[in-house]
């Protein structure tokens, strides 16, 4: 697949809450990521992505925080009871 004229998007998260990250990803990728419960809102993550697709980004974030996700008809559901410290 050759992408012509596309700019790679860089997303930087520095000590960001998972809630902030989800809002940014939903806006950037025009998707609907939902957190399974409110305990996940305040999970903290620091990471950077350049040119990755949404599947890769969600996989990295959930693996880093000890969570899981599933693809839904409207987007993604991030699952777990709480983050790993």
Topology of this protein?
Elements: E1 10-17, H1 18-29, E2 33-35, E3 44-50, H2 54-65, E4 68-71, E5 76-79
Parallel strand pairs: 2-5
Antiparallel strand pairs: 1-3, 4-5
Structure description:
- A three-stranded mixed β-sheet has the order 2-5-4, covered by helices on one side. Strands 1-3 form a two-stranded antiparallel ribbon.
- The model has no long low-confidence stretch (mean pLDDT 90).
- The radius of gyration is 13 Å and the shape is globular.
- The chain starts with 9 loop residues before the first strand and ends in a 6-residue tail after the last strand.
- The protein has 85 residues and is of the alpha+beta class.
- It has two helices and five strands; from the N terminus they run βαββαββ.
- The protein is 28% helix and 31% strand.
Q: Describe the global form.
A: globular
Q: Overall mean pLDDT score?
A: 90
Please mark out the parts with pLDDT under 50 across 5 or more consecutive residues, or reply none: none
Instruction: Report the sheet with the most strands, covering strand number, pairing sense and barrel closure.
Output: 3 strands, mixed
Helix content: 25-40%
């Amino acid at each position: 697949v050759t992408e012509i004229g596309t700019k790679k998007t860089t997303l930087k998260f520095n000590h960001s809450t998972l809630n902030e990250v989800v809002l940014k990803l939903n806006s950037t990728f025009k998707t609907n990521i939902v957190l399974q419960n409110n305990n996940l809102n305040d999970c903290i993550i620091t990471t950077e992505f350049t040119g990755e697709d949404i599947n890769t980004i969600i996989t990295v974030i959930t693996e880093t925080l000890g969570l899981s996700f599933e693809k839904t008809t409207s987007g993604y559901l991030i699952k777990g009871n709480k983050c790993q410290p």
